[in-house]
Specification:
Mean pLDDT: 81
Structural class: mainly alpha
Radius of gyration: 26 Å
Number of helices: 14
Largest sheet: none
Length: 356
């Protein structure tokens, strides 16, 4: 297998990755907006919305109508398009740069660390842009009468609370939520997809587009549920800290501490968890499926730069047979100091091939 040509991963490739990421995140988060509305209501008012996910849907519809399930849709779609742009584009950028700097074999040996590092770096940048829109979404869901549109919510928040308190009260929680979520999402999905291909004894290039999409969806479900569980406490805290008056009037850290004490650690980890597992499991699977599909349609296959170097690949059956034959029939080593070294080297290789 020829070494990877890293020069093909240029600005055009990263732009396509970012665009595909923005589309897949904007579409999927927008599609699950009704689930997100119910999940947020359960987190903010657990004593009222205490009948589970299905019961929460029925309550919202009976009290406010079907349209209430689309509350915050604009902020969700716009915010997560921007977040997906920086997240998926950033992960591809950091991952490829790391693989290029380390070399293919070392990158392969450290692929989990690269997944985690690339995801953390990309998500931090993405959250700077996501946080204001997430604040607008949560304020809309917690108080549907706050304003009638995304610009209206943003304008009123800025006027009443200022930029930092209005838009970035939840920056700490969103980092605690999104960074572990994204790290788990990409690391687990990468390993799950790898395991699926290994179980089929195939590489992505050996499979049809339909099979590759199926692998993306299957591994995405696994990654989504795991990452939802890991990041849920911070998600609950984020929802509560963006509710008007929650945690008192002190600094953001003191408000977060007050909310944690009032809610309790167990409830912080479990309120709305079922709804979130359903939402994130579905959402993550669709994201990877849509991302890979868009990348293929743009003629930019997702990078496979983290692979075993050619020299470390297992020898073929023919290679094993030839080396085994060398082992059995190779003449004795030549006499003289140092003259046997090439013979020894090849004979060791032949023995390893037989053992393989």
């Amino acid at each position: 297998m020829a070494p990877t040509d890293f020069s093909k991963f240029d600005m055009t490739y990263y732009t396509k990755s970012a665009l595909a990421g923005g589309i897949c995140c904007g579409l999927t988060h927008g599609a699950v907006c009704p689930v997100d509305v119910v999940k947020t209501r359960i987190q903010l008012e657990p004593t009222k919305y205490n009948r589970g996910l299905v019961g929460g849907f029925k309550q919202v519809i009976s009290e406010e109508g079907v349209g209430a399930l689309a509350t915050g849709l604009g902020a969700t779609a716009v915010g997560y398009f921007i977040q997906g742009w920086f997240k998926f584009g950033g992960v591809e950028f950091f991952k490829i740069q790391a693989a290029s700097a380390m070399g293919e074999q070392k990158a392969w040996d450290n692929r989990t660390a690269i997944y985690l590092g690339a995801a953390a770096g990309a998500e931090f940048i993405a959250d700077i842009f996501l946080c204001p829109l997430e604040a607008c979404r949560i304020r809309s869901v917690s108080d549907p009468t706050y304003a009638s549109s995304l610009p209206g919510v943003a304008g009123r928040l800025m006027k009443e609370e200022g930029i930092v308190r209005g838009f970035y009260s939840g920056f700490g929680p969103i980092l605690f939520k999104q960074i572990p979520y994204t790290m788990a999402k990409f690391a687990v999905q990468g390993r799950a997809a790898e395991a699926i291909y290994q179980s089929m004894n195939k590489k992505p290039t050996d499979c049809t587009a339909l099979v590759n999409t199926g692998v993306s969806l299957s591994s995405g479900v696994v990654a989504g549920v795991v990452s939802a569980i890991i990041s849920h406490p911070a998600d609950t805290l984020l929802s509560k800290v963006n509710k008007a008056g929650a945690g008192g009037d002190g600094s953001i850290p003191s408000r977060m501490m007050n909310i944690t004490k009032e809610t309790g650690v167990v409830k912080l980890c479990t309120q709305g968890l079922g709804a979130r597992c359903v939402m994130i499991g579905t959402l993550t699977a669709l994201q990877f499926g849509i991302f890979d599909t868009i990348m293929r349609s743009l003629g930019a296959e997702k990078s496979t730069s983290m692979r075993r170097a050619a020299a470390t690949e297992a020898p073929t059956a023919t290679h094993r047979e030839l080396c085994a034959n060398c082992w059995r029939h190779m003449p004795p080593p030549p006499a003289g100091r140092g003259a046997a070294e090439p013979w020894v080297t090849h004979r060791v290789r032949a023995l390893l091939a037989v053992a393989a």
